[in-house]
Design brief:
The complex is a heterodimer of chains A (300) and B (425). With 300 residues, chain A is α/β, with parallel strands linked by helices. Chain A is built from eight helices and ten strands. Classes of the chains: A alpha/beta (300), B alpha+beta (425). At the A-B interface, helix 1, helix 2, helix 6 and helix 7 of A face strand 1, helix 2, helix 4, strand 2 and helix 5 of B.
């Protein structure tokens, strides 16, 4: 163990991984979702290459079901850091007939975005996409490598992963194949918040408690504004003081009743929380191995 | 901040060796649960999954065994990383399966660990698996081993049983184990000596496991003269920074400050450090473990794979022929004379194994000579010859500069790992 604090050590490890990505891949990118993890990842990339600009673009897969605050934040951040931004639209994939829109009350474009993601990566010939996934988030992620190999269909094969030892990452691949890299694999939710606090990183306002029209479904508060999720008649809308603990698109982002107006409040709230942040994510609840199944198809 | 808001904790990485039968999953489950790192929704999901499998008790292994095949077959396939924190320290557990592919997985888990927990079932004492685990921990140069004698409740919390296992372990490991070892009698199932001190074993004077993990100090291999392997050359080529040229890397030994004289290897050219930065910050000093960007006084040719080293003190070695302890991971064998891609620190070159000196039986440590190839999970001493000289330290002195991996150029797969060792005389 080193002499550094845990935040310094995690930061150093992630910066090291981002530089390995830049050195070992021909055309990498950062998957930017607008969530706090991808914000921290982008901030770390900024640090890793300063005073040069981040040597790869940010890629956002836009489901069209966003909180408007996320898009404003995304555009400001890219401009402030001098990073280039590429947006792939799920709507385009729907219009091209590549995916079929889900219908009904639980309709979500979360699953469809895998196709848009793979198309966007192919269109720009990216050979590595860095994501802000963490191993503490979900049990399938706990076993994924930091440099995660995908076949030419973008699929992950969990039973045949390359051994990953020490800090030696293997980016070798055949033409047409690509990688996902996860530089903040070893961070926990608390580490991310502590780092945001320590570094004074600005976040989208959605993370702080605000008034919003919401409704309750299966014990989970969901957003009624923007008005995207189809509601049952029994699901009445109320205005409440809520915040997001994670941000996906509107259809899969649970809202938490909260009084956290500052980062200190948020850290206290998480420290005393008894439910994981993904506990509010409808996309994970579809089955016991929902995340593994989506990853095998090429999801983040 | 009231809770858990400490920004200056330290991080301990440890690996756990043992099988489900030893109660390993139960122990990890208890550490996570008692430190409040398992949340209600995770616990509910595990309870539900246990019920649907017809398990009578909650099966804590389902917390870590996340893959579909693992849950269906009730096995652990791969190294799983788990995270927990107490107000005193942060922990990363590399949880490695006991039975399947144990060598490959344990070597992988141990490669980043500061400490290894070895579990022994109090009813069975030191068994073949214990020998394997301790020997692999010593091969990977883990400096600190904690032996947890588990299931003490099933031997009436007997001090005599515990002392016998302790003596047996020390006798068994004496020929090879350099690490500092301590022993804790526990019952993972009941919680004795895991988080709380055991009322059933007043004869044990040491602290419970969690308190031990929170307080143990482990010497790292990062002491010594400054070393950094160059990962990337930062060149903004912008109007604000027209001539900036910085060498980015993670310091793997010693420390560095502006004004220090450094030598670049393999060229041997010397220069002075003019600045150290990370992001917009400039640093007065940087320590081993930190990722930084260094600028030098002279405009000399430095690229990825080069080493920056302190100009004073001993130098890293540079050789094209090195001795390695190798662990082989794949069913396609290591073949003498075949070309492999060798990745060592940030350097990449081509290498061939000139000779396999001997294989080592992981359970008996007996040597087997006259081997032509190595199979999956084999461990051996080999001689490697590389196209470019490797700039290295022995693995026992520096993990980063003493380790390498074999990549099969045909499949691009990582097929083996090597640790550079001194030649045997």
């Amino acid at each position: 163990m080193g002499q550094l604090t845990h935040l310094k050590e995690l930061e150093a490890e992630s910066v090291y991984i981002l530089r390995e990505v830049a050195a070992q891949f021909g055309k990498p990118c950062i998957l930017f979702s607008g969530g706090k993890d991808s914000i921290v990842l982008t901030y770390l990339a900024y640090k890793a290459f300063y005073p040069a600009r981040i040597p790869f673009p940010l890629v956002h897969i836009d489901t069209g079901h966003n909180f408007p605050e996320t898009l404003v934040y995304r555009d400001n951040l890219a401009e402030r850091l001098g990073a280039s931004l590429i947006v792939g639209y799920v709507q385009d994939s729907i219009d091209q007939g590549k995916v079929t829109e889900e219908h009904g009350y639980n309709a979500s474009r979360n699953k469809l975005q895998t196709v848009t993601l793979l198309d966007t990566l192919a269109e720009h010939k990216f050979d590595c996409a860095c994501g802000g996934a963490r191993r503490d988030e979900e049990k399938a992620r706990a076993k994924e490598r930091i440099f995660s190999h995908r076949d030419e269909f973008g699929q992950w094969n969990p039973k045949n992963q390359r051994p990953e030892l020490w800090d030696l990452y293997n980016a070798k691949k055949d033409p047409g194949e690509h990688f996902r890299a996860f530089p903040i694999s070893n961070w926990t939710e608390m580490d991310v918040w502590q780092y945001i606090y320590q570094e004074g990183i600005e976040l989208p306002s959605l993370y702080y408690t605000h008034k919003r029209k919401c409704f309750l479904r299966d014990g989970q508060w969901l957003a009624a504004e923007p008005d995207i999720i189809k509601r049952r008649e029994s699901e009445t809308v109320q205005e409440l003081e809520v915040r997001c603990r994670t941000i996906g698109d509107v259809t899969c982002t649970g809202l938490t009743l909260s009084k956290a107006h500052s980062l200190e409040d948020i850290i206290d709230e998480i420290a005393s929380s008894r439910v994981t942040e993904r506990g509010g994510r409808a996309d994970d609840k579809r089955s016991e191995t929902a995340m593994e199944d989506r990853k095998k198809e090429g999801y983040f | 901040m009231r809770n858990n808001g400490y920004l200056d904790m330290r991080l301990l990485r440890f690996t756990t060796a043992g099988s489900v039968d030893d109660g390993k999953s139960t122990l990890i489950g208890r550490l996570l649960y008692d430190s409040k790192s398992i949340f209600e929704d995770q616990m509910e999901a595990v309870e539900e999954a246990s019920r649907s499998r017809g398990n009578e008790e909650v099966n804590l292994a389902l917390l870590t065994d996340g893959l579909r095949a693992e849950r269906e077959q009730g096995i652990t396939i791969d190294v799983a990383y788990r995270y927990f924190a107490t107000p005193r320290r942060k922990f990363i557990i590399a949880d490695t399966p006991g039975h399947i592919q144990y060598t490959r997985n344990m070597v992988t888990g141990a490669s980043t660990a500061d400490l290894a927990i070895i579990l022994i079932d109090a009813r069975h004492g030191v068994v073949e698996q214990t020998v394997r685990h301790s020997w692999l921990a010593s091969l990977l140069e883990i400096k600190r081993i904690t032996v947890c004698v588990n299931k003490m409740d099933l031997v009436d919390f007997s001090e005599e049983v515990f002392e016998k296992i302790k003596d047996d372990f020390l006798a068994m490991s004496a020929p090879f184990l350099q690490a500092e070892v301590n022993f804790i009698p526990i019952s993972a199932k009941l919680g004795d000596n895991v988080v709380e001190r055991s009322a059933n074993m007043p004869w044990h004077k040491g602290v419970p496991l969690l308190e031990f993990l929170e307080t143990v100090e482990i010497p790292d291999s990062w002491d010594g003269p400054f070393r950094m392997s160059v990962q990337y050359v930062v060149r903004p080529i912008s109007s604000k920074w027209p001539d900036f040229r910085g060498y980015a890397g993670r310091i793997c030994q010693g420390s560095v400050k502006p004004g220090d004289e450094v030598v670049v290897l393999p060229s041997g050219l010397r220069s002075k450090v003019t600045g150290i930065r990370l992001g917009e910050e400039t640093l007065d000093k940087a320590l081993a473990g930190e990722s930084v960007t260094i600028t030098l006084a002279d405009d000399i040719d430095i690229s990825r794979g080069d080493i920056l080293a302190a100009a004073e003190g001993n130098m890293p070695q540079a050789e094209q022929v090195v001795n390695l302890n190798v662990c082989w991971f794949r069913s396609s064998p290591l073949v003498k004379g075949k070309r492999y891609v060798i990745r060592h620190a940030t350097q990449e070159t081509v290498g061939i194994v000139k000779s396999i000196e001997y294989k080592i039986n992981v359970s008996t440590r007996e040597r087997e000579y006259d081997c032509e190839s190595l199979g999956m999970n084999d461990i051996a001493r080999v001689v490697l010859k590389t196209a470019d000289p490797l700039i290295f330290e022995y693995y026992k002195d520096n993990r980063t500069m003493g380790s390498l991996i074999f990549i099969d150029p045909g499949t691009n797969d990582t097929t083996g790992a090597g640790m550079i060792v001194p030649e045997e005389i």
